[in-house]
Amino acid sequence: MPTAPHVPTAPVPAASVPAAPVPASDRPASGRPSVPGPSARALVPRGRRRRTSAALLASAVSVCLLAASAPATPLGIGDRLFLHLGNPGYDVASYDLALSYPGTNDKALQATTTIVARLTADLDRINLDFAHGTVRSVEVDGAPAAFTTAGEDLVITPEGGLDAGERTRVTVRHTSDPAPAEGRDGGWVRTADGLAMANQADAAHLVFPCNDHPSDKAMFTFRITTPEGHTAVANGRPAGVDRTRGATTWTYRTLHPMATELAQVSIGRSTVLHRTGPQGLPLRDVVPTKHREGLEPWLARTPDQIAWMEARVGRYPFETYGLLMADASTGFALETQTLSLFERDLFTEPGAPAWYVESIMMHELAHQWFGNSVSPRTWSDLWLGEGHATWYEALYAQERSGPSLDARMKAAYEESDRWRAQGGPPAAPKAPEPGQKISIFRPNVYAGAALVLYALREEIGRTAFERLQRLWVTHHRNGTATTADFVRLASDVAGRDLTEFLEPWLYDSRTPPMPGHPDWKSTTEPGSRSTELLAPMAHRPGGSREQTR
């Protein structure tokens, strides 16, 4: 890793040093975690941006001198679970990601990432998260800029700095490496015929430079160039297909803001199937061409599943939806926005009952409302997405010959103290294990968080609870929200302050008594209930395909 700034033309390999894990903190005295703010390290005093032609002519020299004035350091926005994730001082408005696929998934893609952002502070440097590729050049507002790496940050020094309130355009030309990053999970997933993405929780910056935190959502444009015979699909709606000299460039644009962890690009020898969902919603599924017929009966269920969710929480929040059936062994399904990622084998291997497979489909669909449209402000708010997705997964399974919701919740209650001891309470999960950032996806934020929702419904009644669900996804649509926001809205709906009721469920090390079920008991001893009642609700680290995220 270089220790001194490089001139703009020198390629710099992005660092692959994992951020230091953050020790889990206890519940704040107020019971409500504070929202991360900008790191003071980003707010370097400086003069106004120089705009004279003389300064532009001397830009290469002056940029290097300015960059050398202080060592580059990795920044972060203060997320208690991911110390160096995200960057202060700017708000990304849009990403334009151009990728050129070489025709094989064992070679790096050539890429250009263009970021348009609004400056929220005066900055001498712009830090981007990027850790698994070679940076060839950087421009800021059309002018070459110096760059170096620090930890997992790409640190860019524009000539003269940038002023708060301005909009700036950062263009990074780089490679995007599909080979697994050493000691890291996520990023590109190699499939039998190409690539897909799995960026949760902190792996988008293994694919492209970005502000890799769900609190900074943005619009996305994808331009993917592939050799003849390959198909590329990404989040959002198609915005053009250009074919020239044996290659095709596929363009997609989102119509709603998206967190970086939810980005999806599929490249392969695929077939795209189209159908129509409720209220004319365009649906598209991406499947390996040779498995098209075998997967169709499962894909045909999606319109009814969307209608089922809309009847409970309101209209689907995005411009399209579909399933990406990856011919790969991932160990999980993933709610990438408008195009959920699944293992193809889940649907083609015999053995799993239909209700089980469909409930996994429902989990990822429910995430489009809970987790995607309404994203967690911090990673400690992860339970708001996973708990709700697990809740609707369980309700749906109950209606299709699966275990009853009450039976599942009782089983989860019996395991809850053990989950809290191992992973922390739902709204204050323990820090991830070093090199395994996805270890925050523990049972406490799945079935443990659904148990919080069950307790809330028992406390305020079914009518108020269902109204709360609808209001939650309406009030925070296309934005982010915190645990404190949820407690506040629940209190408004119930007509009384629910802080004293909800905080023990969200933050205590022991599970509170379940309203209406005084006979339910929790234990720290393992194996108190059969795993069949909890699967696929409880995320089980270790690679079983029943994992859902």
Automatic annotation (TrEMBL):
GO terms for molecular function: aminopeptidase activity. The keyword rRNA processing does not apply. Its EC number is 3.4.11.2. Residues 1-48, 512-549 are annotated as: Disordered. Residues 315-505 form the Peptidase M1 membrane alanine aminopeptidase domain. The chain crosses the membrane at residues 54-72. InterPro entries: Aminopeptidase_N-like_N, Aminopeptidase_N-like_N_sf, Peptidase_M1, Peptidase_M1_aminopeptidases, Peptidase_M1_dom, Peptidase_M4/M1_CTD_sf. Residues 521-531 have a biased composition (Polar residues). CDD domains: M1_APN_like. It is an enzyme of class 3 (hydrolase). This is Aminopeptidase N. It comes from Streptomyces cathayae.
